[in-house]
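Entry 14. Structure prediction run on the chain below.
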Amino acid sequence: MMDLNLPPLLWLVACQMVLHALMWGLSGVLLRESRTAVAHWGLFMLLLGTGLALAGARDEPRLWWTYNGANLVTLLGFVIMRRGTEQFMRVPASDKEQLAVLLPVAVVVGLAGPGEQWAALRIALVYAAQGFVVLRTVMTVRPALLQEFGRGAMLAIVVPASGIATILFTLGLRQALNWRLPMEMQHNDGANLWLMVLYLTGSAMFSFGFMVMLTQRLVSTLRQASVRDPLTGLFNRRAMTEALERQWLRHRRTQAPLAVLAIDIDHFKRINDTLGHAAGDSVLIHLSTLLQNHVRGEDVVGRVGGEEFLLLLPDTQAPQAIALADRLRVLVRAESLGTTISVGIALAHSVDDSAESLIARADAALYRAKDAGRNRIEVAD
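Output returned:
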């Protein structure tokens, strides 16, 4: 079989890998989100490009770096890709598994000579090892992909990656079945041409797919930041206003009961002034946890001011709302937070012409509770 001049194609694909590496490097500089994973992906692309460039430089005499070195650099790139992907998906790292499975392969490939008599061994082992890494990456991150990004995104990553793993295993098996015919990638071989296509399309799909997911995660983070209080993690005033409006419209449509609890920490300024803002923050966080742990799944809890909290209780009548408020009041006092709470309760009824009027009545009841001595509950008329 006549040799086709494949080295220029190898160099072309290597340049594309380097461009992908630069893209991930720039992303890591500009973005804080998943910076460690992004750095791993950039290094993966750089090592893959380096391995292909070394293969493109193969000539006589056969040098260890252009043959064994190219194999090892490429394999290391796949190992780093898996580690970065696991970090991105926040699953436990598989370093021990990778070390146990791939270290023997690396040792054999590293110790084998660059001569043609060792080529089949190197090729079969490296393709099989690369296929193993890709397949195990898919198996490891698939549940996390499904949970965070949904079935569509999961399939968009898992199906092509599984296909790539299958191709790599096939190439390794093909070499093993043709032991006397080394299928080095610089030789004229239809499989090598398809391998270059695989590298081109695979790297593009990988970069595009994970860039889309990185963007989705950033958007989700920004969306959460816009509706969550940064200290307590509770809904902020904006989110509580939207939630109240939804519950108010539901109440008007179905006449379902709706209760609102306005909660204020008594003498909170004194805590900040005497113990410091760190102590005040600790009280806020503790109270936030307490509130979340003692409401139902359908209830909505938010922090709407410095020491002011709001609870929306759908399908709740006055006795249940009063019982919950009193239980919370007793718990706060019993847990030695250094303070107490006052609570104003309002039940939606015909006098309310808007959601804001319901909140206004709850606030008025809260101020009556504080004026009457604090650490008490008042129900709006």
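Residues 119-177 form the longest helix (59 residues).
Filed with the rest of this week's runs.
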